[in-house]
Design brief:
The chain has about 210 residues and is of the alpha+beta class. It folds into two domains: about 5-35, no CATH class; about 55-205, Protein Transport Mog1p, Chain A (3-Layer(aba) Sandwich), CATH 3.40.1000.10. It contains three helices and twelve strands, in the order H-E-E-E-E-E-E-E-H-E-E-E-E-H-E. The chain has helices at about 5-15, 120-135, 195-200; strands spanning about 30, 35, 55-60, 65-70, 75-80, 90-95, 105-110, 140-150, 150-160, 165-175, 175-185, 205. The strands form three sheets. Strands 5-6-7-11-10-9-8 form a seven-stranded antiparallel sheet, with helices on one face. The longest helix has 15 residues, at about 120-135. It is globular.
């Protein structure tokens, strides 16, 4: 047998053997006396990637669910401890900066108690929205009561004083708790964004 043919057979035999490897479907090729081995593509990483598309998320700690807009793969969670019962939580908030931009985002805050420690009333919703508006330094240009699925609440459209930034707030009572949903953007396109509209429509308390 031609020595070159013998070497080729030995190499092909070694290629076909392995420590449990899946047999290659393609054959090694010989061109001009040289051996060409098919390239095996590496498998993509199996690590789970954050979901950046619009998706429904449930906060076990905040006890609410909502459909987050696109760009909300990463959420920031913050707990506020009770001023009345230090071993309890007064509120839990989840914030999304869409695609990492702090100028465009949304937030849900779930309150487990009122500042007085008593039962929740519509006045608590209005007061909470009022404190938010004052803290952020925006002005309300339209406010209206809202009611859906047996929930009573308040909706406020706010804007930056002397600027174009817009803030949309909806607050309501559900299952004895106050939920405040907010979204903001650099202009009034905020109110026509279907992802944002869906965000407000889907906020729900999951508390028993």
């Amino acid at each position: 047998m031609d020595p070159r043919s013998l070497i080729l057979l030995l190499v092909l035999a070694l290629i076909g053997c392995g420590n449990g490897e899946t047999e290659r479907s393609e054959q090694a090729l010989r061109r001009d006396g040289a051996l060409e081995v098919p390239i095996v593509q590496a498998s993509p990483p199996q690590t789970a990637q954050p979901l950046n598309a619009a998706h429904t998320g449930v906060s076990e700690e905040g006890r609410f669910e909502v459909r987050w807009p696109s760009g909300c793969a990463k959420l920031r969670t913050r707990r506020t401890l009770s001023k009345i019962h230090p071993d309890r939580t007064e509120a839990v908030e989840l914030t999304c900066f869409r695609n990492g931009d702090e100028n465009v985002g949304c937030k849900v805050t779930a309150y487990d108690e009122t500042s007085s420690g008593g039962p929740v009333t519509p006045a608590d919703v209005t007061a909470t929205i009022g404190r938010t508006v004052e803290t952020l330094g925006v002005e309300i240009w339209k406010q209206t009561p809202v009611a859906s699925d047996g929930r009573q609440g308040v909706m406020a459209y706010c804007r930056e004083v002397g600027g174009t930034r817009q803030l949309w707030i909806v607050g309501f009572i559900e299952r004895g708790r106050v939920l405040i949903a907010m979204a903001w953007d650099v202009d009034d396109e905020l109110y026509r964004d279907p992802d944002v509209i869906r965000f407000f429509q889907t906020v729900r308390s999951t508390a028993p």
